[in-house]
TrEMBL record:
InterPro entries: HATC_C_dom, RNaseH-like_sf, Znf_C17orf113. This is Zinc finger protein 862. Pfam families: Dimer_Tnp_hAT (PF05699), zf-C17orf113 (PF25431). Residues 79-119 form the C17orf113 probable zinc finger domain. Residues 1-36 are annotated as: Disordered. The lineage of its organism: Eukaryota, Metazoa, Chordata, Craniata, Vertebrata. Residues 614-665 form the HAT C-terminal dimerisation domain.
Amino acid sequence: MSRQLSVTGFFKKPSSGGLERGEKRGSDVLEDNEEGGPAVTAVLSAAPGAKATSSGKEVRREYRVQWEREFTWLRAEGGKMFCDICRRAKANNGFVKGCTTIQKSALNDHKSSHSHIESCAVVNQSVQMEKHVEKSQVACNEALKTQLKVVLHMANTSTPSHQYPKLIHLLQSAGCPNLNTAHTYTHHDTIYQMEEAIAATITSAIDDRIASSRYVGVIVDETTNITVEKMLITYLSLQQNGEPETVFMGNYAIPSGTAECIAAKIKDVLSGRGVAMSRVVGLGSDGANVMVGRKNGVAQQLRQNDCPYLVNIHCGAHRTALAARDASKAVREIDAYVTTVNNTYTYYKNSPIRTHRLKELQKEMDEHDLLSLKQPSATRWLSLERAVKGMRANWVALVLELEEEEAARDCPVAKGLRRQLQKSTFPALTHLLTDVLSVVNRMNLTFQKEDVNISSIQPVVNMTLASLDDLISEPGVAERKFNEASQDGRFCGITLTQPDAQAFSKLRSQYLAEITKSVKKRFPEEHLGIIADLDTVLNASRYPTADSALKTHGLEALERVCDQYGSPRGAAAPLVENDRMQRDFLPMKRVLAGSGNPSFRGSCRLLITSLGEMFPDFRALAEVALVIPVSSVAAERGFSLQNKIKTATRSRLSEAKAQHLMSIASAAESIDTFDYKQASALFKSMRPRRKV
């Protein structure tokens, strides 16, 4: 018999259900459902270990997803509730450790708790600080980009670094929105690091292009800078999808100008940029003996030890200049003419009073197209032509001014110069040289172009020789004008002395014969060798139209190409497979002929981009042919750039700084398209910076 526990229990009727309907226990309310049975309406959580009521029914407390819409900081993980805000603020409360009371009342209690309110304040301050930092970082990045633009512009225009603060101040005064005192740099070390970052960005892009070119050509030349240091400038010729390109590698100080020293430096530079020597197939130089010597020249040393397939090219522009110089030295009268032109230039250059009188006389004569006097230079390719043109334009005024100088001051120098200028051979030679040098310098300018290739050499030489033959047959334009204006021993109203038409005719024939001989000597057909053979094999514009002639075209040249590139050279593997190349030669010619007989460069582009898989050996030949440097003009331009950067007033520039400036100026990057993002990242990584 059960024991009575209370008076209330004695009077209450026993019930098998445990609780009467409508009676409460805690927060659980039992009511009748539609069928009359009990139902649980306060279901809150699905926590493990559901509690049982005294009636034996389980009340499961389930997590409700809709709570997250009301409490945006709420997260449920592993049967517990967490607060993202308190977590972020690193508070110490139950919603950081995980709340197991899965009830909405618990959420309301936490929302109004002091800990949660403090956490909200902390997080809000943190968010505001992050926005402020982000805004400041954006302003700092924009300021750095603007400063990098200034440094890039200064390098492109050879502006000294000490002008940087003035340019920044100018931009600030003009209201540049990205520059303020807090975000700008002025220290010279920082400017150097900006230059270094820009140069490194450019060099990285160049290295990527070098890596994608299977073969490369090297262009080198040596000179002396303003501080009397022996320098070796190096360029690389490469190709990108059939488009040739020349890139600057560096300008390096070398202890001596010997072939051994130059060859060692070339190897060191290329290995430092990840270029294997076996990829080098061409060397362009000025033709100096140290470069092209047959026994111990740079080309021979590289070919014997590291670059078995290297082809050495003597710069076409240098050859042309040497041909003109050889012809002038061979004819005594031409050499004397150059001396007279040089003396006349010096006579007026050293006296501003004489120069002023000459200009005033030219104005009185209504000479509208005035040309100043120029000095012939042995080191400048086109200087003699400019000097001759200046002499031709100023000859009348010079003679009259020298006569006045002689009469007024009895100047013996003026008297001697006037006598030389007034000889009949002098104006006649001036007009002859105008015609001849325009022909020779046209060839020189062709070889100085960026897009010149091996197919240009022989046609340009043949054109020049044909033009010289025309001058031998009949006078040129300038000479005809002189002959028409020269009558009765007078030219332009001035009496000429010592007229001798027969002597000048002999001199004319001698000079034209010498210049023709010099051009042929400097550009012998047999010395073009593999260059001419590659042009014959690859240049579809030279293919015959008849199929019968097409079959036999270039067979001998192909044999020589096979000997050059299809035979093993020491440990180096051949570049092409001879049998396959000979088998594919006729199909390749027919495909190129069917493509419209493109030019040499167009043929190479097709073989590299479209026909490479069909004709792999000819693709290799095209890649080789495009990177063989025809001239060393790039190196000459590099020395001009060096002398523009390292001047007498900037003679203390270090080799590294000069290298950076030359790298930037050679690339000629536009300030609108340069990759400032990479340069900024490199600049920031160089050292910890307070402003970035």
